[in-house]
């Protein structure tokens, strides 16, 4: 029984190896205020769907109303594809609302995504993603 | 196997010969006591390492091209090593800059490099400031440099190129870095870049203010090296880099060095903007986290001298910025 | 009753080959989601390493493009995401073991551990992320020496490891467990060797996927920008001590803080919060978030 | 319950006899008279005796200070164990005279301190700790007593790892034993434990726990001698999988720094 439990636990871990990419790379605690959350509402300019972590660049006002380009970190390509997110899921020009942890370096306007929403439009259905970027 | 010891010897050797850098005077070397090592780098490019600067050697059916010629007393020994690779004529020599540990062998190599097949003397390429400094009066009343050692193919534009041994060779001028006459030499097919003393991974960069060196130019030079180099998978290998002194490198090694100089520059600019004097800056130890890797407390180029040169270089720039 | 486990004492295990899954039963929060800023505990670092880490800005990995696909060094790999595959290379003619090879999940990193007695290359040879490794047997323990390592890190919060380091490992297999002792000597940043050990469990069913990495302007900044805090200007260095009620000096690391007698020195200055609020669970990739309980 | 304890004792006895008494596996050599079993001390391929100090290069926050209540990072414990751990009450342990709950065999090697290792007799290796003033006795060939009272350190059966199974069997007459087959580890199996804590802040292990340890000696380039103990705690009651840590000890010339201190529940 014991050995089977061990085997299942590790097999589960290895099947989802694609999820781990971001963990390998940097340290979330060092890069973001994990205990804070901010929300931005703006226009998607670029969607970098890739490994080890995807990024969306969004033009949106900061808390003082000044327009900024935000770099929002998302999961690795493998993680997103498992969640049904593809390169075509979002397009430059989409209106998006993003919530996540703010980066520690204010100059970079960086966010670790927790959720993203594209309200439905005449030409595109609503899109939602919520989860943990590892 | 214990490369820690051989690395320290290497550093000591550098510091001793750096003493000759500032003026043309040739150090007293007994060639018999010097070990020269020829190593293959990539493609048709090799590097000859010993006391003095690294010498890049490219060989092929057309003969030999070289980047720098080391110290004069070692020229015969260096040529003997080159002849083990190729017996053809030395057709091209490029000087990465004016200092003796890279140009001292010019005259001797020009002679030794000629063979029956030579159409004429080797073309000795260098940026025009090298010629100006070698042909002009020498600092500290040092004797003039013999004309036989002067470049005979100086260039003025940002780049100069030639095709040799089935390979494009591109020479880039990097203004006001280590000196005002620095050149990078890129062997395109072999994918090897010789950097001269803009990149010396085992010690802080020498900023020769007296010969037009500057910190901002040094950083631009390092960024230019990073632009030229292309790493293979996972940021390793690909374009190989032959530094002015020290071990064979690639882009990732240059990135660490560029980061160091950039971070130290940012610290010094901040201190200068806060009106700190040179003594106050030195007391603040702005390079403490890099001293155990690149610093020295004795020899021609100590940590203090690097900070002093950088401070002066950035102060002048910061004043001109206003 | 688990007495059955005792049945027969072990024969020596001597076959390292196979698929090994890493166990994060030590330092899970640091090795998985990553270390907190200012946490230099358990590292015998010197003042230079401390200042390098204090001035480190974690955005550097995104802003310096050449860092985006920079792998872990051979030494850090043993602490990092270490799903590991080991195989042997046998010489056809002599049927002798020439080398062990490893493949690791993070950055598809591969190492060769030469077992044929070849020498290490000279000091001027190029350095690589995985370095140059040779191995010798000590009984059924494999001792590996690695030189020629590129500059890398001891911890992902800016604590550096230099290219003058020498990395020694001792591999030991006990039943279905692999223990690897790692010894890092670094004259540039450490005052004494850093000796640690990590463990793997045999996992024949493991499938190490492709890690893959592409460069992209993650956080666009002017070319040549190297994010860093000016000395003395990093506002985040005392967070860690605050969250865990530790005396700030203890979080600064250094050999003295790693010996038992240091416990008495800080006993009176430790004021832990009443209850855990950060990374309280954390044993695998899936239960190691800030608020997992 | 008594029947399973009896079964455990029988198996322990079998384990110890097999451990040492079995003649070396069939090998190339001619079948001779079985050798009398060597004592643990005589058969020792490496020397663990002397003074050692734990250098805390792992889990610093969970070893050098009492971990925060509810902080069980890195331990593969189940929800029942987490519930018990969150209810940790050191004052209650003190009142019950159980200050040493986190100094039991499954945890003691992780407690920062110095060790003194010596041969109590030719078949008993003794490990004394200054932290918590504990003593562990690792029994080599002695037949385990009929019934063993549960204790913090339990009852430990030790044996030297034996050469690899089948070593020396010539591959069709040509092969010889290859390098790397001679085991030098000390294997220790401990049962009969009183329930305790894996760490000071209360993550529990039960009486059903089986502790497996492997001790390995290694010398370093700078001349230092170390040993690493791989500690495998198997407890189906409170752990989802075996809890595996490995702890590193540096040899020190003598007892300097020896600082005996009583167990502390806080």
Q: How would you describe this structure to a colleague?
A:
The complex is a heterotetramer of chains A (134), B (322), C (293) and D (266). Chain B is of the alpha/beta class and 322 residues long. Chain B has a single domain, classed as Ribonuclease Z/Hydroxyacylglutathione hydrolase-like (Metallo-beta-lactamase, Chain A, 4-Layer Sandwich). Chain B has helices at residues 3-18, 75-83, 100-103, 106-112, 128-135, 215-228, 251-273, 278-283, 288-294, 303-321; strands at 37-42, 45-49, 55-60, 63-67, 90-94, 123-127, 153-155, 159-164, 167-174, 182-187, 192-196, 240-243, 249-250. Chain B has a 7-stranded mixed beta sheet. A 6-stranded mixed beta sheet of chain B has the order 8-9-10-11-12-13. In chain B, a hairpin with a 5-residue loop joins strand 12 (240-243) and strand 13 (249-250). Chain B is globular, with a radius of gyration of 19 Å. Chain C has a domain at 18-27 and 56-202: Beta Barrel (Lipocalin), CATH 2.40.128.20. A 9-stranded mixed beta barrel of chain C has the order 1-2-3-4-5-6-9-10-11. A two-stranded antiparallel ribbon of chain C has the order 7-8. Residues 10-31 of chain D have low confidence and may be disordered.
Of all chain pairs, the largest interface belongs to: C-D, 80 and 81 residues
Residues in β-strands, percent of chain A = 25-35%
Number of strands of chain A: 6
The count of strands of chain C amounts to 11
Spatial strand sequence of the major β-sheet of chain C: 1-2-3-4-5-6-9-10-11
The separation of the N and C termini of chain C measures 30 Å
Number of helices of chain A: 4
CATH homologous superfamily of chain A?
A: Nucleic acid-binding proteins
Shape of chain A: globular
Radius of gyration of chain A: 17 Å
Main sheet properties of chain C: 9 strands, mixed, barrel
Helix content of chain A: 10-25%
The major beta sheet of chain A can be summarized as: 5 strands, mixed, barrel
Mean pLDDT of chain A, to the nearest integer, reads 84
> In the CATH classification, which architecture of the domain at 18-27 and 56-202 in chain C applies?
Beta Barrel
- Major sheet strand order of chain A: 1-2-3-5-4
């Amino acid at each position: 029984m014991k050995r089977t439990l061990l085997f299942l636990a590790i097999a589960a871990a290895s099947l989802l190896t694609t999820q781990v990419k971001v963990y390998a790379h940097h340290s979330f605690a060092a890069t973001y205020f994990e205990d804070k959350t901010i929300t931005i509402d703006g226009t998607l300019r670029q969607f970098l769907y890739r490994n080890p972590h995807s990024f969306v660049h969004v033009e949106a006002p900061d808390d003082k109303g000044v327009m900024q380009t935000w770099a929002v970190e998302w999961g690795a390509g493998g993680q997103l594809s498992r969640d049904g997110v593809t390169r075509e899921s979002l397009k430059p020009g989409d209106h998006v609302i993003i919530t996540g942890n703010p980066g520690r370096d204010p100059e970079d306007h960086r966010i670790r995504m927790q959720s993203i929403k594209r309200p439905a439009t005449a030409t595109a259905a609503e899109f939602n993603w919520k989860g943990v970027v590892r | 196997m214990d490369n820690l010891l051989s690395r320290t010897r290497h550093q000591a050797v550098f510091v001793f010969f750096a003493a000759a850098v500032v003026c043309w005077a040739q150090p007293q070397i007994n060639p018999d006591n010097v070990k020269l090592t020829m190593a293959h780098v990539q493609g048709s490019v090799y590097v000859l390492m010993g006391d003095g600067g690294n010498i890049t050697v490219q060989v092929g059916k057309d003969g030999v091209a070289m980047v720098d010629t080391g110290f004069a007393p070692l020229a015969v020994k260096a040529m003997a090593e080159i002849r083990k690779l190729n017996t053809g004529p030395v057709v091209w020599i490029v000087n990465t800059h004016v200092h003796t540990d890279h140009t001292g062998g010019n005259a001797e190599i020009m002679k030794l490099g000629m063979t029956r097949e030579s159409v004429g003397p080797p073309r000795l390429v260098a940026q025009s400031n090298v010629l100006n400094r070698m042909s002009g009066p020498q600092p500290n009343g040092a004797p003039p440099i013999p004309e036989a050692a002067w470049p005979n193919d100086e260039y003025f534009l940002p780049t100069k190129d030639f095709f040799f041994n089935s390979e494009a060779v591109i020479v880039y001028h990097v203004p006001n870095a280590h000196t005002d006459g620095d050149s990078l030499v890129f062997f395109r097919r072999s994918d090897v870049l010789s950097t001269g003393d803009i990149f010396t991974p085992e010690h802080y960069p020498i900023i020769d203010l007296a010969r037009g060196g500057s910190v901002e130019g040094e950083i631009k030079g390092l960024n230019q090296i990073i632009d030229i180099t292309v790493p293979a998978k996972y940021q390793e290998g690909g374009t190989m880099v032959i530094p002015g002194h020290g071990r064979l490198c690639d882009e990732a090694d240059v990135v660490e060095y560029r980061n160091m100089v950039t971070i130290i520059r940012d610290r010094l600019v901040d201190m200068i903007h806060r009106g700190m004097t040179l003594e106050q800056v030195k007391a603040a130890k702005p390079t403490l986290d890099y001293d155990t890797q690149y610093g020295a407390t004795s020899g021609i180029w100590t940590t203090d001298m690097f900070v002093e040169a950088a401070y002066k270089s950035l102060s002048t720039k910061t004043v001109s910025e206003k | 009753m688990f007495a059955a486990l005792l049945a027969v004492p072990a024969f020596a295990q001597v076959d390292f080959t196979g698929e090994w899954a890493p166990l994060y039963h030590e330092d899970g929060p640091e090795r998985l989601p990553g270390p907190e800023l200012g946490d230099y505990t358990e590292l015998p670092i010197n003042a230079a390493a401390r200042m390098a880490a204090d001035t480190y800005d974690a955005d550097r990995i995104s802003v310096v493009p050449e860092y985006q696909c920079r792998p872990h060094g051979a030494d850090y790999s043993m602490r990092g995401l270490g799903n590991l595959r080991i195989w042997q290379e046998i010489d056809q003619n002599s049927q002798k073991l020439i080398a062990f090879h490893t493949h690791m999940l993070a950055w598809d990193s591969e190492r060769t551990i030469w077992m044929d007695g070849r020498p290490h290359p000279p000091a001027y040879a190029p350095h690589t992320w995985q370095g140059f490794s040779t191995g010798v047997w000590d009984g059924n323990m494999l001792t590996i020496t690695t030189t020629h390592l590129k500059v890398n890190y001891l911890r992902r919060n800016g604590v550096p490891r230099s290219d003058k380091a020498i990395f020694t490992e001792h591999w030991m297999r006990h039943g279905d467990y692999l223990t690897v002792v790692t010894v890092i000597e670094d004259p540039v940043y450490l005052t004494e060797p850093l000796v640690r050990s990590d463990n793997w469990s045999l996992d024949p069913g493991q499938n190490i996927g492709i890690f893959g990495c592409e460069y992209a302007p993650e956080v666009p900044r002017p070319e040549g920008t190297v994010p860093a805090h000016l000395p003395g200007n990093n506002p985040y260095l005392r967070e860690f001590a605050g969250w865990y009620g530790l005396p700030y000096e203890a979080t600064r690391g250094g050999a003295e803080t790693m010996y038992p007698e240091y416990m008495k020195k800080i006993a009176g200055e430790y004021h832990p919060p009443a209850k855990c609020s950060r990374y309280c669970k954390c044993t695998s990739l899936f239960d190691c978030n800030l608020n997992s309980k | 319950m008594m029947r399973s304890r009896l079964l455990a004792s029988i198996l322990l006895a079998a384990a110890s006899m097999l451990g040492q008494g079995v003649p070396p596996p069939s090998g190339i050599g001619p079948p001779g008279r079985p050798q009398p079993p060597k004592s643990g001390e005589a058969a020792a391929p490496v020397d663990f005796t002397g003074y050692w100090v734990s250098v805390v290069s792992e889990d610093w926050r969970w070893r050098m200070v009492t971990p925060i209540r509810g902080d069980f990072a890195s331990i593969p414990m189940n929800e029942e164990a987490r519930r018990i751990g969150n209810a940790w009450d050191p004052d209650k342990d003190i009142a019950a005279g159980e200050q040493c709950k986190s100094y039991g065999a499954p945890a003691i090697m992780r407690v920062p301190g110095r060790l003194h290792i010596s041969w109590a007799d030719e078949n008993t290796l003794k490990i004394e700790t200054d932290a918590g003033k504990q003593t562990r006795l690792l029994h080599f060939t002695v037949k385990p007593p009929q019934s063993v009272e549960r204790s913090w350190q339990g009852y430990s059966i030790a044996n030297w790892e034996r050469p690899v199974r089948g070593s020396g069997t010539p591959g069709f007459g040509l092969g010889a034993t290859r390098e790397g087959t001679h085991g030098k580890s000390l294997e220790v199996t401990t049962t009969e434990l009183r329930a305790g804590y894996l760490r000071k802040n209360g993550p529990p292990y039960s009486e059903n726990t089986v502790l497996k340890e492997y001790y390995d000696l290694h010398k370093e380039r700078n001349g230092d001698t170390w040993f690493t103990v791989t500690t495998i705690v198997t407890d189906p009651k409170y752990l989802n999988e075996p809890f595996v840590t490995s702890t590193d000890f540096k040899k020190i010339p003598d007892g300097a720094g020896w600082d005996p201190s009583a167990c502390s529940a806080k």
